[in-house]
Amino acid sequence: MATLNRTEVWRRVYACWMGKNAGGTLGAPVEGQPGPHNFDWYPRLQEGGIPNDDLEMQLVWLEAVKQAHWQIDARVLAQAWLTHIGYNWNEYGFAKRNLRWGLLPPLSGAYDNDFWNDCMGSPIRSEIWACLAPASPRLAVRFAFEDAIVDHAGGEGVWGEMFNAALESIVFAVHDLDTALDLALAFIPPDCQIARAVTDTRQWWQELRDWRKVRERIAEKYWHREPTHAPQNLAFTVLGLLASDGDFGKAITTAVNCGQDTDCTGATAGSVMGILLGEVPKKWAEPLGETIATNLSWGGIRNITPLPDVRTLTDEVMTAAQRLLAWHGAPVQIADAPTDLSDLPADWLRPDDGVYELWERNRHPWRVNFDLTAVQVDVDYRGLPTINPEVARTVTVWLRNREPVPLSVTLVWDAPSDWQVEPMRSSVTLPAKGRVGINAHIHAPIRLPQTQTLWCQVRVHERPAEVAVPVTLIGERRWLVRRNGGEWKTEWLPDSRLPLEHWLGGQAGIVEARLWLWSPRRQRVVLGLPTNGAFQLTLNGTLLLSGHQPDYLVRPGQQGPPSHYKTAELALGWNEVDVRVERGDRSIDAYLLVTDPSDLHRHVTDLVMTQMP
């Protein structure tokens, strides 16, 4: 059994959190600005640092891990999202709405989230998994994957969190940065954008040895108008590490001076350097103190008693890490003896088949896995988890026999009376250790609900009863659309995006679109229409929004400038939303969003958008 010295690990975990606090505090005041900057010190100081979701969400994950007794998966973390996370920024909001509609991970992170799932919301949450699994990147990466798919499934955000978790776990054991980067890159697919951006950055650094010149190369190849896009930001973080020459301050200032999502890049660079060095220089640590600042006061996190300071957090993580490593059978222990990694298996710091299976799962985010007792059930939605009354929805239920003997299995569907499933009942014999897929064709009623869960009972002959498997489908939005003053036609849209380029065939023209919202009560909402076309939006005949900003960055955010977002009151019952967007000689895009007007900007989930009066 390999050994990590308890005191040494404690120092590295403590330095990880202090480094994250320092880097995040340095970068927060210029978050989202393109840069380059020229900071060599904090632009703004606050005792305990500036409250940031990067850190406080990991306090929630630590509590969830303890409550789940070290058995971490995306469904455990999904419950923690809904119980403890109040804010709904960007991908967080879409994932939480999807969860409230009944979608399980990874569907919650993939559906209606393709703009955001390549972004930084998950890579910033990697430290907890590395600190719970020091010198154990296979474990850290697995936990990071389960975390990331809740709100980034199918995207680069998953690869970003896996890479960060691998690197941070590895540097508990490997203190040469280049070797650690080589090992960490092996935990993500070499053809993903994150891997390419990191690899290119390392090559450019070898050639140029000037962070500003390397930053220019990164910007030329990976720049994105969305500041939180992950590949560019992971590259900036790695550049900070490479340019540091082992100096903590150089690492975080270089990462932040590159610009864009600076609170994240600075924080991750600080975390890695903290673990690697085992300390954060007093110059950077003392002005912040050890207090942990959070967004608890206004509900950003909730239903939790935050840990008061970094020492307490470190103590809690150390206790959990020792138990977690033992529970998962890791060949490394935390003990009072000197660090001795001579007995660490040669391949323990490298990916195994389990990691490669995670790659496949992220490449196919429309599959939901259920581990029953005798069989494993995989529900493959074969695309978006949506339905409309005009087209049958086909899902494939895959059954994998865990036993060394054949099993007779019957699937029985339980659906509302106005829904049809063909076939409602089907039987199959599973060969020993075999796998069989059964298609089900689902027909929805014309009075389509916004969300509907059907149940697939898996009955194994002469075996104990198994739980039923949920299959949740989101009703598609029923729009009336006309182009250039022509006839009105029904269009079923699967998500928040208005496919204007498709409707206009890439040509100049005008789209008029009408959607009815049925509200169960009078309620104030924020209607958002982020678009770069010339637009108007009316609610029940009253003009709410109009304008034209051709250079507007079209992003499906829950909030935005008053030119594109307006608070209004929905009536009880039916409400008519009319949208008019004009295209000139430039491509256009648009989304329609409905959120509540509170500081939390939660998606409104009790509306029906699938029917007409």
Automatic annotation (TrEMBL):
Gene3D superfamilies: ADP-ribosylation/Crystallin J1. It holds the Pfam family ADP_ribosyl_GH. It comes from the Bacteria. It comes from Candidatus Fervidibacter japonicus. This is ADP-ribosylglycohydrolase family protein. InterPro entries: Ribosyl_crysJ1 (IPR005502), Ribosyl_crysJ1_sf (IPR036705).
